[in-house]
Amino acid sequence: MGTYDHRMDSKGRLVLPSRFRDELGDRLVATVGIDSCVSIYGLPGWRSFFEKLSALSSARAGCRDVKRLLMASAVEIDVDSMGRVLIPPFLREHASLNREISVIGVGDHVEIWDKELWEARRLQIISELPAIMEGVGGL
């Protein structure tokens, strides 16, 4: 959990906050996020997510497309000795990542967002929060 603002270098590397590294481990899987972000899972979390993804019905076009996109976009990434991860160019493009980024904890994974896009999305969610809470049945 939490939000950390960082900078990505010109090669597409960013320091993953130590709190997230401790939880996720050194071997990670990155893929396109459902929104305009990059989702990063530790290997155990990815296996759990993969099982849920695999259980989707291949008879439904939407399920097939979700499987295709998330699996075709998945890539293993390592944490280097300085705590950095390299985000591949196609994932940086998907998330419109620039130099200023936000790393947010989302339970079983983290998301990498362009800082401005995250701030706009966060404010949108806040403005819609009562309706969202009603739609998901509250807590």
- Output mean pLDDT: 90
**How far apart lie the N and C ends?**
18 Å
**Number of helices in the DSSP assignment:** 5
Structural class, from helix and strand content? alpha+beta
Q: Largest beta sheet, briefly? A: 6 strands, antiparallel
Poorly predicted regions: none
Portion in beta strands: 25-35%
Count the strands?
8
Radius of gyration: 16 Å
Order of helices and strands: EEHEEHHEEHEEH
How much helicity do the residues have?
40-55%
Explained architecture:
With 139 residues, the chain is an alpha+beta fold. It is built from 5 helices and 8 strands; from the N terminus they run E-E-H-E-E-H-H-E-E-H-E-E-H. The chain has helices at 18-24, 43-54, 61-72, 89-94, 115-135, and strands at 3-7, 13-15, 27-32, 38-42, 75-78, 84-86, 100-105, 110-114. The strands form 2 sheets. The protein has a 6-stranded antiparallel sheet with strand order 1-7-8-4-3-5. A two-stranded antiparallel sheet has the order 2-6. The relative contact order is 0.23.
